[in-house]
C-alpha cells in the first residue's frame, strides 16, 4: 500500500502552525467517532503505556520533549482515514496549548513535522492486521519502532514482538530496547489497578520498569516510612545510648564514691596505723626508758652491793687487825 502525504503539507517547525495557504480543510478529517474502546484490559494497558511516562517525568530524564498518547488518531494524508495505535510515543514534539481546535485534536503528521517514533498495538482478535496491514502502514509512514503486544497469544506463542525500521521495512529489535528514544519495552507480571496479570511496560536500559504515579507514590510512602522507621530507630538508639551513658555515669559516680570511700578508709587506716605506730614507738620509748631505769637501778644496786661488800671487807679487815691486836671487835665498848 502506498501512502501519500499531501503536497500541501510543507516541512515546518512542529511547534508552530504552518502558513495558512498550506492548511487543508480539517473538517474532512474524522478525529472522533462512536467506535467504543476496545475492552477493559486494553483500556488499562493503554493507560499503563502513557501515564508512567508523565508521572516519571521521562521528558526531563531524557532531556527531550515527549508526547505519549493512547487511542489517538494519526493522520498522514488528505482523503486517508486515520490509523489509531493503542499507544504512541513521539519525541521532540509538543502539544498545542489549546487542544480543542480540530487541527490540535489528533496527531497530524504534517503539523508535528514527523511521524510518531514508536507505536504499540494490543492484540485482542485475529482481525486487527497487527502483523500485516498495520505493520506495513507504520513502516510506510516512517514510524521507527513498532511494538505488538499479544497477551492472549492470538497470533502465536510470542506475547511480545518488537520491530525496528530499517530502510522501509521492519526487522526485529534486540531485547526490546528502542535506542533512538531511550526507552525499552518488557513484559511485567504484577498488579495494576487491582488486576494481576502480564502487562506491557516501558523500561530503562537495565530493564527497570518506568513507574506509574501510584508506584511512585507507594515508593515515596515506603521511603518515607523507611525514613520514619530509621528516624525512630535512630531515636531508640540515641535513647538507649543516652540511657547507657547515664548508667555509665551513675556507675562512674558510684565507683568514684566507692573510690573516695576507700580512699577515706585508707586515709583513716593510714592515720590509725600512724597513731598505732606512734603509740608503739611511745611504748617502745617508755619501755626503753624503763629498761634504762631498771638497768640504772641494777647498776646502782650493784654499786651498792659492791660498796657494801667493800665496806664489809674493810670491816672484816679492821676486825682482823683488831683481833691481831688482841681487841675483840665485837665486844661492847665500856
Report on the architecture of this protein.
- It is a single chain.
- The chain is α+β, with helices and mostly antiparallel strands and 334 residues long.
- It folds into 2 domains: 20-211, tt1808, chain A (Alpha-Beta Complex), CATH 3.90.1570; 225-294.
- The chain has 5 helices and 11 strands, in the order H-H-E-E-E-E-H-E-H-E-E-E-E-E-E-H.
- The chain has helices at 40-55, 58-62, 109-112, 133-141, 213-324, and strands at 66-69, 74-75, 87-91, 107-108, 118-122, 145-149, 160-166, 169-172, 177-178, 183-192, 195-203.
- The strands form 3 sheets. A 6-stranded mixed beta sheet has the order 1-3-5-6-7-8. Strands 9-10-11 form a 3-stranded antiparallel beta sheet.
- The protein is rod-shaped, with a radius of gyration of 59 Å.
- Mean pLDDT is 87; it is low at 1-18.
Index terms:
334 residues, alpha+beta, tt1808, chain A, 2 domains, 6-stranded mixed β-sheet, 3-stranded antiparallel β-sheet, 5 helices, 11 strands, 16% strand, rod-shaped
Portion in beta strands: 15-25%
Q: How does the overall form come out from the CA principal axes?
A: rod-shaped
**What is the number of helical segments per DSSP (H or I, 4+ residues)?**
5
Strand order of the largest sheet: 1-3-5-6-7-8
Can you write the helix and strand succession as a string?
Answer: HHEEEEHEHEEEEEEH
Text of the CATH class of the largest domain = Alpha Beta
Label the structural class: alpha+beta
Query: What's the count of strands?
Result: 11
Uncertain segments: 1-18
> How many structurally independent domains?
2
Instruction: Tell me the radius of gyration.
Output: 59 Å
Mean pLDDT: 87
Binned, the helix content reads: 40-55%
Amino acid at each position: 500500500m502506498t501512502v501519500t502525504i499531501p503536497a500541501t503539507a510543507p516541512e515546518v517547525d512542529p511547534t508552530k502552525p504552518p502558513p495558512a495557504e498550506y492548511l487543508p480543510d480539517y473538517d474532512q478529517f474524522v478525529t472522533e467517532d462512536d467506535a467504543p474502546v476496545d475492552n477493559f484490559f486494553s483500556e488499562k494497558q493503554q493507560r499503563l503505556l502513557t501515564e508512567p511516562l508523565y508521572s516519571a517525568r521521562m521528558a526531563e530524564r531524557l532531556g527531550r520533549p515527549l508526547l505519549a498518547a493512547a487511542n489517538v488518531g494519526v493522520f498522514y494524508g488528505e482523503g486517508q482515514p486515520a490509523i489509531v495505535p493503542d499507544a504512541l510515543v513521539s519525541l521532540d514534539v509538543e502539544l498545542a496549548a489549546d487542544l480543542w481546535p480540530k487541527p490540535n485534536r489528533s496527531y497530524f503528521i504534517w503539523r508535528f513535522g514527523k511521524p510518531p517514533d514508536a507505536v504499540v498495538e494490543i492484540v485482542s482478535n485475529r482481525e486487527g492486521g497487527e502483523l500485516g496491514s498495520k505493520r506495513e502502514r507504520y513502516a510506510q509512514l516512517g514510524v521507527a519502532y513498532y511494538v505488538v503486544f499479544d497477551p492472549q497469544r492470538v497470533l502465536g506463542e510470542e506475547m511480545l514482538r518488537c520491530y525496528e525500521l530499517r530502510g522501509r521495512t521492519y526487522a526485529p529489535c534486540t531485547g526490546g530496547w528502542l535506542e533512538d528514544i531511550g526507552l525499552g519495552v518488557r513484559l511485567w507480571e504484577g498488579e495494576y489497578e487491582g488486576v494481576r496479570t502480564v502487562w506491557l511496560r516501558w523500561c530503562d536500559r537495565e530493564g527497570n520498569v518506568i513507574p506509574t504515579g501510584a508506584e511512585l507514590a507507594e515508593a515515596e510512602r515506603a521511603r518515607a516510612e523507611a525514613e520514619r522507621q530509621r528516624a525512630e530507630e535512630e531515636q531508640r538508639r540515641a535513647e538507649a545510648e543516652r540511657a547507657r551513658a547515664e548508667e555509665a555515669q551513675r556507675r562512674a559516680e558510684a565507683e568514684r564514691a566507692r573510690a573516695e570511700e576507700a580512699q577515706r578508709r585508707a586515709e583513716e587506716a593510714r592515720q590509725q596505723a600512724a597513731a598505732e605506730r606512734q603509740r608503739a614507738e611511745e611504748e617502745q620509748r617508755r619501755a626503753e626508758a624503763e629498761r634504762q631505769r631498771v638497768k640504772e637501778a641494777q647498776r646502782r644496786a650493784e654499786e651498792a652491793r659492791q660498796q657494801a661488800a667493800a665496806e664489809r671487807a674493810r670491816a672484816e679487815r679492821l676486825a682482823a687487825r683488831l683481833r691481831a691486836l688482841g681487841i675483840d671487835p665485837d665486844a661492847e665498848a665500856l
